[in-house]
Design a protein that fits this description.
581 residues, six-stranded antiparallel sheet, alpha+beta
């Protein structure tokens, strides 16, 4: 798990040495085990890499060159099937000097071109500089687990694993449509970012830059129709066990588990405890009170004790708002969440013991696990489904994005057309919504939070529910298989049968929650008033001063008020952090 940056000088008439060093310094938290810069001024190529060594700790340096120096590749992530890919190549007569993934990736590209990414099972972002063909290719894994950003103009191409590195060398104006997206969706989906002319590579996309220009190519498109089959407990158990165990074993350093008290992380802990009794592992959970444990902490504690896994309950009672500042800075963009502080605190404490953790993220999107998804699926056509969906995922209550934004006239139809259009399966709301959740919301909302906040603490987060064979199996089950039950996790509970700890048999979804209402009314009250009345920031973000003031003035402490205040506060908090940095 690592991070990389790059600058391609199209005109080959400037020296970007100081810029590339500044960029790598901005993301060095992603790779504290070593940084390396590779500069070829004659070709206008400036590359930087920072490494968090998980596999082949002493080898596999990057940027890595092919044997003839025609190809340079940088890679961030983990390829879980790289050993099998390596064995297949060795059978063809190829040999390797290191034990890591990067040599395998280079050889696959030389043999198959960029289509080799279809062979990879893992989480990754790739930069391929093909010197012979004079092109640069940026690739993101099919679920967007690993991030990748880029900026391009007539002079240069700039790319990075995090937006802050690009921002350090390229000044960016605020993209107002991105603010509208945030106000409606809680996040800014690809290809947009908060800055104009700076973009995210989409999940399952590769982008080619060459003399012809820029070409965006979607390589990962799941079939819209499946030959659905019946759920099998035996088959499910085999698939999920193989995924969890191989994900855990694919490491040369110790790993832990984020244990939230819910079923998804509980299944991971259960299978690891049962199959790897003698391997070191530890579970981490979080709370905000030293005196009264929340339900999820209580369940997580019981599960860990039942499984005999070392358990760390982290209390963020002290210094909690330092984690708020760190999370806003690390996320790079406006981001509505009540669990980011929890993820930041968990990651910081876990990183003191381990270099990686397994998490349960990605499971809900496959089983229609969120309440807002089920509400949207009550509609019989795609248009009505989207209306209900926006109501569910949006955080604005009794006020619209159009009311909050000044002189900006976007609509929800604009979002559907520009962001979700490629997910629509005509007259099939269920499949449409699953694709929206898997390929739009999951990558740039849930997974963005997990990656940025774990890597901010030099901690790798692995997601066994997003392994290829598990996803293929779950997508081969009809949507009705999941939504006909009130408990969307019932099949998962049945699938691992009698080994599931008793506390998990009766729980519903358990996220890492936070006491936002208490913060708004007490600890953060003065700061909230301050940013809500900073007219300079409101102007920069395109917000209407009177509408924003009305939200705070009418606060009564109910759910709608809390949501509105928290969402606007996080938006303005990001703006303040961005201006400061």
């Amino acid at each position: 798990m690592c991070g990389f940056v790059g600058i391609i000088d199209k005109k080959k008439n400037r020296d970007y040495t100081s810029a590339i060093n500044l960029m790598i310094d901005r993301i060095k938290h992603r790779g504290p085990d070593g940084q390396k810069v590779s500069i070829d001024k004659e070709r206008g190529i400036y590359l930087g890499f920072c490494r968090l060594a998980m596999i082949d700790i002493q080898g596999s340096d990057q940027p890595a060159h092919s044997h003839n120096n025609d190809v340079v590749i940088m890679f961030n992530g983990e390829i879980y099937n790289y050993i099998q890919l390596r064995l297949d190549l060795e059978k063809q007569g190829y040999s390797f000097k290191t034990m890591g993934e990067i040599e395998v990736i280079i050889k696959l590209y030389e043999l198959y071109g960029v289509s080799f990414v279809d062979k990879l099972d893992g989480m990754f972002a790739l930069c391929i500089v093909d010197l012979k063909q004079r092109k640069t290719i940026l690739v993101r894994d099919k679920f967007g687990i690993k991030p990748l950003y880029y900026y391009e103009n007539s002079e240069m191409l700039v790319f990075s694993s995090e937006l802050k590195a690009i921002k350090s060398v390229v000044s960016g104006d605020i993209e107002k449509f991105s603010i509208y997206l945030y106000l409606n969706l809680r996040f800014i989906p690809a290809p947009y970012t908060i800055y104009k002319d700076t973009f995210k590579v989409k999940a399952g996309e590769y982008v080619i830059f060459d003399n012809i220009g820029k070409r965006n190519c979607q390589y990962s498109v799941y079939n819209k129709e499946y030959d659905y089959h019946r759920f099998s407990c035996e088959e499910f158990f085999q698939v999920i066990s193989d995924n969890i165990l191989s994900t855990f074993k694919c490491s040369d350093v110790p790993l832990g588990i984020f244990l939230s008290g819910g079923v998804d992380s509980g299944i991971i802990a259960t299978i690891l405890a049962g199959s790897l009794k003698n391997q070191k592992k530890a579970a981490y959970c979080i709370d905000y009170s030293a005196n009264m444990k929340s339900d999820e902490v209580r369940v997580a504690n019981e599960v860990a004790e039942f499984l005999n896994i070392p358990y760390h309950n982290i209390c963020l009672q002290d210094g909690v708002f330092g984690y708020l500042d760190k999370s806003v800075l690390s996320l790079d963009e406006p981001f509505y969440s009540t669990v980011s502080i929890s993820t930041m605190g968990l990651s910081e404490h876990a990183a003191q013991d381990v270099k990686g953790v397994l998490t349960g993220d990605g499971s809900d999107e496959l089983v229609y696990g969120y309440k807002y998804i089920r509400n949207a699926l009550s509609q019989t056509n795609v248009e009505d489904m989207f209306d209900t969906y926006f109501q569910g995922v949006g955080w604005l209550k009794y006020i619209s994005a159009s009311d909050l934004m000044r002189d900006i006239h976007f609509t929800q139809a604009d979002i559907v057309h520009t962001i979700f259009d490629d997910c629509i399966v005509t007259n099939n709301p269920k499949e449409t919504l699953r694709r929206v959740e898997l390929f739009k919301r999951l990558p740039d909302y849930h997974l963005a939070r997990v990656d940025r906040l774990s890597m901010a603490n030099s901690l790798e987060a692995r997601l066994p529910y997003l392994r290829k064979n598990y996803v293929d199996y779950m997508l081969s089950l009809s949507a009705n298989t999941f939504i006909q039950s009130k408990d969307s996790k019932l099949l998962l509970k049945r699938g691992i049968g009698g080994i599931l700890p008793t506390p998990l048999r009766y729980v519903y979804k358990k996220p890492f929650t936070a006491p936002v209402k208490r913060w708004i009314e007490n600890d953060l009250k003065d700061d909230i008033i301050c940013v809500f009345n900073d007219y300079g920031m409101l102007e920069r973000m395109g917000l209407d001063r009177r509408s924003v003031s009305r939200v705070l003035d009418q606060y009564q402490g109910d759910y709608a008020d809390i949501s509105n205040v928290w969402g606007i506060y996080l938006l303005l908090k990001w703006c303040k952090t961005d201006l400061k940095n």
